[in-house]
Amino acid sequence: MIAGALKGEDDIAIGNLIVSNIYNMVIVLGIPALNLPKHARLRSFRP
C-alpha cells in the first residue's frame, strides 16, 4: 500500500486500503460469530 502511494499509484493504494478494511471486518466479526452456540443464535432471532 505504501509502496504504491510512493510511486504515485494512488488507485492501487486506495484499493488496497478498502479491501484490507473489508477483510479485517469480515474476520473480526465472522470468526466470533462462528463460535456462538446454536441455541444462542436461534434464541436471538425470535420475537
From TrEMBL:
Its main location: membrane. Residues 2-35 form the Sodium/calcium exchanger membrane region domain. It is a multi-pass membrane protein. GO terms for cellular component: membrane. Keywords: Membrane, Transmembrane, Transmembrane helix. GO terms for biological process: transmembrane transport. It comes from the Bacteria. The chain crosses the membrane at residues 12-36. InterPro entries: NaCa_Exmemb, NCX_ion-bd_dom_sf. The keyword Transmembrane helix applies. It is found in: Membrane. This is Cation/proton exchanger domain protein. The lineage of its organism: Bacteria, Pseudomonadati, Pseudomonadota, Gammaproteobacteria, Enterobacterales.
